Amino acid sequence: MSNSNHVTTEKTIDFRGGGFAPKSKKWLGFVVFFFILAFIEIGTRVGFISNLTLPRPSDVFTTFLELWESGLLWEHLIPSLTRLFVGASIGSSLGICVGILIGLFSLARGSLVPVIAAIFPIPKIALLPLFVIWFGIDETSKYALIAFGTFTPTVVATYGAVDNVDRSLIRMGQSFSLSWFSIVTKIVLPGAMPGILSGLRISLAIAIILLVAAEMLGAEYGIGAYILEAGSLYNLERLFTGVAILSILGVSVSATIGMVENRLLDWRT
């Protein structure tokens, strides 16, 4: 009598979707960016892309190196960074404070939300002449424009983030007899932080746009003034060099916010 052993094997089916936990593939962005530059370089050299439309990326890089070696890069970049830092710091700080007030207090919500809703759709660039009349053509008008431009989107993002905090967590804190201050600092603000930081990404991108607009009016030095001068001379290499510097600045700001997110929001992992 022979005994036969039946071995049952279970085959697991892999989950085919990424769900809501996408894997980071930072190298992929660099590869795509490299191929775009390579395509433009080849196109301008072969001739199916006109040099009057796009300059060669190699010429733009050469212009950037000349700007670096001459020292003009820092003469334009430092004033721009100063204006961006001062204006965005004022606007985002006030925006976060006002947004938290609106999210926590009914009186602030009832009185301030209509005001924010009224000024939010106004194109901030269109107010640049008004800020020049109010504050003069010097640095104050540039700070004020950038601060005002970052203020309203930061307010909207902040009180929206406070509203989206899970109410069951707040009720849990109340059931444990936590004080109002403890609930705000330990539950509401940490829960709202992802939305606040996401709003800051948008606000700082708007700040860079307003920085360029402000520097195109009455600024001797700055990336915006550099781009305006290059455009008036129809120097595409210099113009795209300025655009590339702005792109690098935007990526650096986004990366900085990403590092802050990793530091403050490590509890999500």
Automatic annotation (TrEMBL):
ABC transmembrane type-1 domain span: 77-261
Top-level taxon in the UniProt lineage: Bacteria
UniProt feature coiled coil, ranges: none
Cell compartment(s), UniProt: Cell membrane
Classification lineage: Bacteria, Pseudomonadati, Pseudomonadota, Gammaproteobacteria, Oceanospirillales
Protein family according to the UniProt entry: Belongs to the binding-protein-dependent transport system permease family.
Membrane topology recorded in Swiss-Prot or TrEMBL: Multi-pass membrane protein
Protein name: ABC transporter permease
Organism: Marinomonas phaeophyticola
